[in-house]
Design goal:
The complex is a heterodimer of chains A (about 100) and B (about 450). Chain A has no helices and 9 strands. Chain B folds into 3 domains: about 130 residues, Immunoglobulin-like (Sandwich); about 140 residues, Immunoglobulin-like (Sandwich), CATH 2.60.40.290; about 120 residues, Immunoglobulin-like, CATH 2.60.40.740. Chain B has 1 helix and 33 strands. In chain B, the strands form 5 sheets. In chain B, strands 24, 25, 26, 27, 28, 29, 30, 31, 32 and 33 form a 10-stranded antiparallel β-sheet that branches. A 6-stranded mixed β-sheet of chain B has the order 1-11-10-4-8-7, with no helix packed on it. The radius of gyration of chain B is 38 Å and the shape is rod-shaped. Chains A and B meet through strand 1 of A and strand 11 of B.
């Protein structure tokens, strides 16, 4: 990942509890990182994100799921396009 | 549920070039770096140039550099030197709070001392930093190293001398001294070339090379000798085995007891001197320069003086048989000055006998000196030849003859091969006859 270059960033999240699709994910981006014109995010499996309701503001990305139901504890992959790498090689703060 | 994770990016790339204002080895000059960055840095950002270790900072001024062709940058940044990685970090790049965009800029850094040899240096490394912290690298990239050019050795700091200044003298020791202006590292070597007019016995040279540092004791040093169509080449392969030659060191390279001096007092040359670093790259040279001149003509060997008549006042023929070390060319000159008790005449003729062949040669008389021009052939050095003069009037008495002065000179009469005054054992032994005798008889 080269400084300032756009990438698709993939989060691998392992849930420990059952979550409802009415729940939502909040990803805080550390200072220096950003999403350039948030477009889409993808959730692994059959459940997708609702692009219309998901938001990105002040380094905070809130992702809402579509469809009704629950997700059992599992490993979830959230893929976000248009992620801009940090401006230097300094390790970022935590997401 | 909450989870945490961080990421670390890698630096972007940048490209650039480096050029020296003066390319000579060891020269202190300015380096111009033209750098194209890929990413912005903040106004507190920095640029760092890591120099190859062969380059040194002659003057570590905080205002060491000037930036030109830049956007949102000051022209004179603050320089911070590091001896740890031989680098300069440029900070205070922007007097405002504006970010410094990616761009192509030129940073001219003053007082950089060029590498000590003509070997190409390793690359420079240039990096930009987002903030004043060197852990915030943004772009980095190599810039090709530089190659210095050979320095010229100051000929006024070179002295050639020899143990003898006599033409054609043998077993002569030659000394070649110079003052080091560009240091020679341990393991470096020196190559000398001598003109062929100074003749060396190459088979013995290798055991007769010495080096003297400043006014120290001459020490044996390994060397090898060879010859080309134009010069002798001597390679002093390891003259500095333990101590480098620093600026101002006086090095004397000696070839002991191995040379035969030039045959005449004419200047001989050129000489060349080249110094090399241990990696085989040249440092400095003095090519095809300098000349050397021996000043004293060698002596003839006089084998015989003879004449056809030992009678007082007789008009007779004189022959001098002699040898000289140097070879005489047909265009060279011979001068023979007779003792003042003899009377040479302008109609005297001159001839030379060499290899049992006698040839009449052109000669002219001035006072008591014959000048012989246009020798019939070359007279190879070390071979006997004779000069014969006709129509020379013997002394008027039995007084022994004083010496003959014989000199051989180059065709232009500018330089001497040999010159010496003979001793001889000639003296008249027959009285001259009265031209007429008149008797007066008076009877008693």
């Amino acid at each position: 990942m080269i400084v300032n270059q756009p990438y698709t960033i993939k989060f691998e999240i392992t849930t420990l509890d059952i979550i409802s699709t009415n729940d939502y994910f909040v990803i805080n981006f550390p200072t220096g990182t950003t999403i350039n014109s948030f477009a889409t995010a993808a959730l692994g499996g059959t459940t997708g994100f609702n692009s219309a309701t998901s938001t990105y503001f002040n380094q905070v990305l809130t992702l809402y799921m579509i469809s009704a139901g629950t997700l059992s504890p599992q490993t979830i992959f959230i893929t976000i396009t248009n992620f801009i790498a940090p401006p230097s090689t300094l390790t970022t703060g935590n997401f | 549920m909450i989870s945490f994770q961080s990421i670390t990016a890698i630096a972007g790339s940048l490209v650039g070039t480096a050029s020296m204002a003066t390319t000579t080895v060891n020269a202190v000059n300015s380096y111009a770096f033209t750098i194209t960055t890929s990413d912005l840095i903040t106004s507190a950002g920095q640029i760092k140039i890591t120099f190859p270790s062969a380059l040194t900072f002659a003057n570590q001024s905080s205002s060491c550099a000037v930036i030109t062709n830049m956007t949102n940058m000051v022209s004179i940044p603050t320089c911070t030197f590091s001896s740890i990685d031989n680098s300069i970090t440029f900070s205070n790049l922007n007097s405002s709070t504006s970010n410094i965009p990616s761009q192509t800029m030129t940073i001219t850094v003053n007082n950089i001392q060029n590498p000590p040899s003509t070997a190409t240096t390793p690359n420079f490394i240039v990096s930009t930093y987002y903030t004043s912290s060197l852990s915030t690298m943004v772009d980095t990239g190599p810039i090709s190293g530089v190659t210095a050019t050979v320095a010229t050795i100051d000929y006024t700091k070179v002295v050639i001398s020899s143990s003898s200044l006599i033409t054609s003298d043998t077993a002569v020791t030659y000394y070649f001294s110079f003052v080091v202006a560009n240091p020679i590292s341990v393991g470096g070597y020196i190559v000398l070339s001598y003109p062929l007019n100074i003749v060396f016995g190459l088979s013995t040279v290798s055991s007769n090379c010495q080096i003297m540092i400043n006014s120290g004791t001459p020490l044996s040093t390994p060397c090898s000798g060879s010859s080309s169509s134009s010069s002798y080449i001597f390679n002093y392969s390891n003259p500095l085995p333990s101590t480098a030659a620093t600026v101002g060191t006086n090095i004397t390279l000696i070839i002991a007891n191995s040379a035969t001096n030039p045959p005449s007092t004419q200047q001989v040359g050129p000489f060349s001197l080249q110094t090399y670093s241990s990696d085989g790259t040249i440092i400095a040279n003095l090519l095809n320069s300098l000349s050397y001149q021996v000043t004293t003509p060698n002596s003839f060997t006089f084998n015989q003086f003879s004449r056809l008549s030992n009678q007082n006042a007789a008009i007779t023929t004189y022959t001098i048989t002699l040898t000289q070390i140097a070879t005489l060319q047909p265009s060279d000159l011979l001068f023979v000055t007779f003792p003042s008790s003899l009377v040479p005449y302008s109609n005297s003729s001159c001839s030379i006998t060499y290899m049992n062949i006698t040839s009449v040669v052109t000669c002219g008389l001035t006072n008591y000196t014959f000048k012989i021009v246009s020798l019939s052939s070359s007279i190879i050095g070390g071979n006997i030849f004779s000069i014969t003069f006709t129509n020379i009037k013997n002394p008027l008495s039995y007084s022994p003859l004083t010496g003959f002065l014989v000199a051989s000179r180059t065709a232009t009469n500018a330089y001497a091969y040999s010159s010496s005054t003979s001793t001889n054992s000639l003296s008249d032994s027959v009285p001259s006859l009265f031209k007429s005798v008149t008797y007066l008889y008076s009877p008693q």
